[in-house]
Design goal:
The complex is a heteropentamer, with two copies of chain A (about 220 residues), two copies of chain B (about 230 residues) and one copy of chain C (about 250 residues).
Chain A lengths: L1 H14 L3 H22 L3 H33 L2 H6 L5 H30 L7 H25 L5 H10 L3 H16 L5 H30 L1
Chain B lengths: L8 H6 L3 E10 L2 E11 L4 E5 L6 H9 L6 E6 L2 E2 L4 H6 L1 E4 L11 H11 L5 H10 L15 H14 L4 E5 L7 H16 L3 E5 L10 E4 L16
Parallel strand pairs in B: 3-8, 3-9, 6-7, 7-8
Antiparallel strand pairs in B: 1-2, 1-4, 4-5
Helix pairs in contact in B: 4-5, 4-6, 5-6
Chain C lengths: L9 H32 L13 H28 L2 H33 L7 H20 L5 H15 L2 H11 L19 H52 L1
Helix pairs in contact in C: 1-7, 2-3, 2-5, 2-7, 3-4, 3-7, 4-5, 4-6
The chains are: A mainly alpha (about 220), B alpha/beta (about 230), C mainly alpha (about 250).
The complex binds protoporphyrin IX containing FE (HEM), adenosine-5'-triphosphate (2 copies) and magnesium ion (2 copies).
Chain lengths: ~220, ~230, ~250, ~220, ~230
């Protein structure tokens, strides 16, 4: 388990060398979200209707922005080989890197989302469920995206194609996530969507680290 | 100057041996080498020689468990390595062509990470290793600012920092200045004296005393494809 | 031995130390007077009521936001073209101060917007361009600190500052080019300002005070930055002396 | 000039060998745009109203995904140093890489946009001007993005940092681009916005290669 | 075995000389070396020695035009290099620690790209260079499949493939096997015979005949900062 923590801590260190770096992530979300009013025009009610979609898109973007570096850096400088021959199951290593990734991109998004939501004047009633679904959803995004990144390693074409086949798997997440918020704003229950999200999360927690491990082995051999 | 973490006791008791029989390696549909046998026992050093592209690194990677041999078997204490890979990994250090150094981390952070990865979190072996390769003064510098040789020395420090009975070193002396080369040889000698084993590939003469030698040139059968057709 | 890249900034420091007390004093007095006038003396607006007093903070900080960026851009240009390290230091020192003024402008603006326009925020040209200005400041600061090697950060951020300068005229004239909720220039209009002197006086007092404050803050920060670099250089010189001895030993 | 072509051809070759960048961008573009119908609810007229904005914003964000690697690879393997000491002005080299980038990511976006426009049932009358503005817009994006990439080169956390630098500079493009389409849909002329976009393009053509050159010099020194 | 593209005529006429006076180098707020003078004239070879981190690579980078010296001047034929950088670049080849090889491209494509970049697009010098470093058989392999030494040889082939009167080589023999090292020395000898100049850094003895030597250790003044304070 100490190896697990070592990896998480290292990735966090590299990602957030200073406080300013972590603030940067939040500012990035604000900017990305702020783009939509420019594009779509400032009618408040229309913005409010888009808000959930906007939040999820920015979340997806933030995650994807960091994916190609997720394993690539370790792969190129030879660290991945050492991770592969470390006395610790590779899926655990992968899980560690996934956790780190979620802490780096998912959590800042959680912190920023209320701000963005208000900028896009989403009704406060939706905030709670928004945060909840975001927490689960970003975790799923990190898991699935990591699998994609692992498959794309070594820049072999087949790998790239596979990794891209993975990404559409995220669409249901986005739909349920946005749908939950919509539901609450519409005055309905969101239990169903949230349960579905949790189910997805569990499935990914089982499948993705294992898949990553296999892909990573293939990449270093 | 250097003490390898907790004194070599751990593996002096094991008295491991490491051997391979009839090993073959295929890379990109091409037989790099085949029918290769080797064996290393405690205190011994095996030096791999051969022209560029003869398969030294490939062999070391097989030994380290990066990839399975296309044919043949690797034995650790007489038992196939695959029986308990984690136990084997715990007993081996692999140093490749690439230094696995993170430019964004300081020298010490780099070393500490690999230590923790192998479950030897204590800083003692760490400082000893740094001073062994003459990096102790630079311990708190970001690795980005290291010169080529300093970076290579950091990679070597990783091997010295945590105990393992088998060292697999791919051209360990590359980019090192004379002083550092001497330091490395000294460390290897101590390791062997403590009952450790060393396999090193090289293109330049290595001043290890009484090494075994293995020339990869002898094991290439260029004309044959993995399908058995002869070109 | 002394090397060109760090043309020893004694001259700059001497000048700075001479100016600092005056700037600080002026800032204190002018802002003090300005606050007294704007909250004590000047009349409430006939249609805006007491909220008009926000103006005395909002407008000067808005001006300073733009002025500071101009300073950053010019200093950056000097640093890039004449390779004068102190210029970069000034730019890096000025950026956070300008960012604060911009933040104040945004905050007071939206505070004022609630009673005036009935909303905290509208995506109109001026407000938006000021928001972009704020982002530019943040980008500049982030970039300047994003490298281990200070000289790398200062050059990168300088380029950004120059490219971003395009935004200044947009802010200034956005109210004229696009029809916005925000009201057009009345003080800074060519010819007679269309604003009553009882409001103009405190406004100008505050503006001058803010400027003095800006100068003082920049000087303090620049001195600190220079000292920090000098210390860093000393430390790494020590480290490498030891390292060299370590190898030879 | 031969050096210029050499760089363009090389970058295209590498991109085609390992399709990652272009596909990544397209996939994100499609996913992100496809998300909004679910988020906003399927009333066609409302979708159509926000279609231009959504198209532009998602295109912008998708482009962000490709800048991280633009100079990174050359920087890490030492090629950038050789480009810097090649007997050819560095701004020309930068321009070459920018052209290649536009061909690799801008053009695919251009091709994909009509499809997505129809998904968001934008009226066909808007397609022409959409393509026209997109063509100019994506070129500007490549130019500005390259500048950001060159500035953030070798920094920590480059991925997020550079989108933090780029996005604010791109807001005008977004406003005019989306504005043009809306104007046409509203039955007005879009000449003004298109002219403004072309003006921006010219300005960027002058500023960005120069900025890139200076930044890249700083990066290899 | 090797002919350097179009026969050295181009630069035999120029009879260039390359010298530096009072050079100083600052990296991250620290003086690496200062007050360094050197000069190379046609047919000469200058070897840079010094411990890891003494500044060999830094000096070579200054010579190559990667970064300006913090003090001092570089002269090409007596005129400051900055007067006409492109002319200088056209006459120099720089080989760094990193090989600048694109894994996705084939060996020949890699070489052709750098040739085109320097405006010498013809394939003749290219094939000659490949055979000079013994890579002609692998010409159409993706560079990903090259071994460490083969990659380094590809980097060297880039220097041989297009003519330039000044070669700046940072540890040229790293990772090379004996045969390749010999080939490199032969190429350098031919280059010098044709009136070319070579500056090479190294940590291992280089068998060049009658080289000038420059030991970086002599020029470090540790303990003084760029500000003039002494640590
Ligand atoms: C967040 C919202 C706001 C922002 C970002 C903002 C920004 C600015 C800027 C940049 C200026 C300087 C213009 C120049 O020097 O030409 C300015 C001036 C001014 N603003 Fe605002 N403003 C905001 C809200 C408001 C509101 C709600 C009001 C009151 C209705 C207001 C009233 C004024 C006035 C009276 C001036 C002085 C104009 C002049 O005489 O030059 N602003 N504002
Ligand atoms: N990118 C960098 N940023 C800051 N400082 C650096 C950087 N690279 C090297 N240095 C410092 O400059 C000094 C000289 O480095 P350089 O690479 O020139 O040494 P070298 O003689 O080439 O060593 P080696 O034999 O290991 O290649 C080193 O002490 C190192 O700390
Ligand atoms: N990643 C790879 N994919 C496919 N083939 C490879 C790969 N790496 C090396 N090879 C091939 O395997 C053979 C052996 O490579 P290897 O790196 O083991 O040689 P080596 O003896 O280590 O050479 P060097 O002395 O240059 O390090 C080479 O001929 C090379 O063509
Ligand atoms: Mg090898
Ligand atoms: Mg070096």
């Amino acid at each position: 388990m100490t190896g697990f923590m070592a990896i998480v801590v290292r990735d966090l260190r590299i990602a957030l060398r200073q406080l300013s770096d972590s603030l940067m992530v939040i500012v990035f979300f604000v900017i990305a979200a702020a783009l939509f009013p420019f594009g779509v025009g400032p009618e408040p009610n229309q913005l409010a209707r888009m808000a959930p979609g906007v939040l999820w898109v920015t979340a997806l973007l933030a995650a994807m922005l960091s994916f190609d570096r997720l394993f690539q850096a370790d792969y190129e400088d030879g660290t991945l080989e050492l991770l592969a021959v470390a006395p610790q199951p590779l899926w655990l290593t992968a899980l560690a890197k996934i956790c780190a990734h979620w802490l780096i991109t998912g959590v800042p998004l959680l912190v920023a989302s209320p701000v963005i939501a208000i900028m896009l004047n989403l009704e406060p009633s939706g905030l709670g469920v928004l945060m909840a679904t975001m927490a689960v959803g970003t975790a799923i995004v990190s898991l699935v995206g990591a699998l994609g990144a692992a498959l794309a390693l070594g820049s072999r074409r087949s790998g790239v194609l596979l990794s891209l086949l993975i990404l559409p798997l995220l669409i249901p997440v986005l739909i349920f996530g946005a749908g939950a918020v919509e539901a609450v704003l519409g005055g309905f229950e969101a239990r169903q969507q949230i349960l579905l999200l949790c189910g997805l999360l569990l499935a990914c927690l089982v499948l993705c680290p294992w898949g990553c491990a296999v892909a990573l082995r293939a990449a270093v051999e | 100057m250097l003490c390898i973490g907790p004194p070599g006791a751990i593996f002096r008791r094991i008295m491991a041996t490491f051997e391979g029989h009839g090993l073959a390696c295929i890379r990109s549909d091409r037989i790099v080498f085949a029918g290769l046998d080797f064996s290393v026992s405690p205190g011994e050093a095996l030096i791999l020689t051969g022209a560029n592209g003869s398969g030294k690194s490939s062999l070391l990677r097989l030994m380290a468990g990066l990839g399975r041999p296309a044919a043949g078997s690797l034995l650790w204490n007489g038992a196939p390595v695959d029986d308990d890979r984690d136990a084997f990994f715990r007993q081996t250090h692999y140093l490749g062509h690439r230094d696995a150094v993170k430019a964004a981390l300081t020298v010490r952070e780099n070393l500490a990470f690999h230590g923790a990865l192998r479950g030897s979190g204590d800083g003692t072996g760490l400082d000893a290793a740094l001073s062994a390769v003459g990096l102790d003064a630079l311990a708190d510098m970001p690795a980005r600012m290291l010169s080529a040789g300093q970076t290579r020395r950091l990679a070597l420090a990783r091997v010295l920092a945590s105990p393992a009975s088998l060292w697999l070193l791919d051209e360990p002396t590359i980019a090192l200045d004379a002083a550092s080369v001497a330091a490395v040889f000294a460390a290897v000698a101590r390791h062997r004296a403590a009952g450790g084993m060393v396999v090193a590939s090289t293109n330049v003469p290595l001043a290890l005393e009484a090494p075994k030698r293995l020339d990869l040139a002898e094991f290439r059968d260029a004309g044959v494809t993995p399908w058995g057709d002869s070109a | 031995m002394l090397l060109h890249r760090y043309a020893n900034p004694t001259r700059f420091l001497k000048l700075a130390n001479a100016i600092l007390p005056w700037a600080a004093g002026a800032a204190a007095i002018l802002i003090g007077a300005g606050l007294y006038y704007s909250f004590g003396k000047s009349p409430p607006d006939y249609q805006q009521g007491e909220t008009v007093r926000i103006m005395y903070v909002h407008v000067p900080s808005a001006w300073m936001a733009m002025f500071s960026y101009a300073v950053v851009a010019v200093a950056s240009a000097v640093g890039l073209i004449w390779k004068h390290p102190v210029a970069h230091v000034v730019a890096i020192a000025a950026a956070p101060v300008g960012a604060c003024f911009t933040a104040i402008c945004l905050a007071t603006g939206s505070l004022w917007g609630k009673p005036m326009w009935g909303t905290w925020w509208v995506w109109d040209a001026r407000l938006t361009s000021v928001l972009i200005l704020f982002f530019l400041y943040l980008g500049f600061i982030a970039l300047a600190n994003a490298f281990d090697d200070a000289s790398r950060g200062e050059r990168a951020s300088a380029i950004l500052a120059l490219v971003g300068a395009v935004n200044l005229p947009i802010i200034k004239f956005s109210v004229d080019w696009w029809n916005t909720l925000h009201q057009p220039a009345s003080v800074t209009k060519m010819g007679m300002p269309s604003i009553h002197t009882s409001m103009l006086i405190p406004l100008l007092l505050m503006a001058l005070g803010f400027t003095a404050l800006f100068v003082a803050l920049v000087i303090v920060r620049a001195r600190a930055e220079l000292a920090a670099r000098r210390i860093r250089a000393l430390r790494s010189a020590r480290i490498h002396r030891d390292a060299a001895e370590g190898v030879s030993a």
